[in-house]
Amino acid sequence: MPGHFEPLPGGGAAVALDDVEISIIRSLAVQLLELIGPGPAEDAPDDPLAELFAEGPSEPPSDPVLRRLFPDAYTDPEGTPAPKRAEEQRAHSAEFRRYTENDLRAGKRENALAVVRTLDALASEAAGEGGAVLELVPAESRQWLGALNDLRLAIGARLEIGDEDDADVLYGLPDEDPRKPMVMAYLWLGGLQETLVSTLMP
């Protein structure tokens, strides 16, 4: 079980984590929460209709990590489109973003919060023991999967990983390269993500 998730009887997943691993994942999840930003103010009026019709931003984020987490919905896979088509895509993307980004942010925020909460509970149970086995129910497993995916997207954006060729170059970085810890985190989270996916498959 060390270093990878295994399925639990009746659903869910488990992974053994030491104190350092718990600290790293928690720190990354907190940074992700800070990047995504806060949710609705707690003192906002409790009006479900207001929330339902609240509009989000229409422009893509300026931060490259947020652009990776919240990409435009309409892009041309073939490359740079003709000017008229590009303008249409921008308009459609702005409209889509306006009505979906708030919900997407809320979902990503909840996933990251679930990671922090489960790790905090694990750390308090295993205080002084050097680590423990994290056990997740199926709903928590899905939240963890979403958060791990977002963390890898965020790190990949910071490392400017666009495709497998970019990743291959980074894997061979010398130990003294300042990007090396981020690359190692990217690979490690990828392994966790892959094994967690396998536990959720029927």
Largest sheet: 3 strands, antiparallel
Alpha-carbon distance between the termini? 20 Å
Question: Proportion of β residues?
Answer: 5-15%
| Secondary structure tally, helices | 7
Oligomer: single chain
Low-pLDDT ranges = none
* Strands, total number: 3
Anisotropy-based shape: globular
Q: Which sequence of SSEs, written as H and E, runs from N to C?
A: EEHHHHEHHH
Structural class by SSE content: mainly alpha
The average pLDDT is 84
Task: Enumerate the strands of the largest sheet in spatial order, edge to edge or round the barrel.
Answer: 1-2-3
> Rg to the nearest angstrom?
19 Å
Q: In percent, how helical is the residue content?
A: 55-70%
Describe the structure.
The protein has 202 residues and is mainly alpha-helical. The chain contains seven helices and three strands. The chain has a three-stranded antiparallel β-sheet. β1 (6-7) and β2 (13-18) form a beta hairpin. α5 (138-158) packs antiparallel against α7.
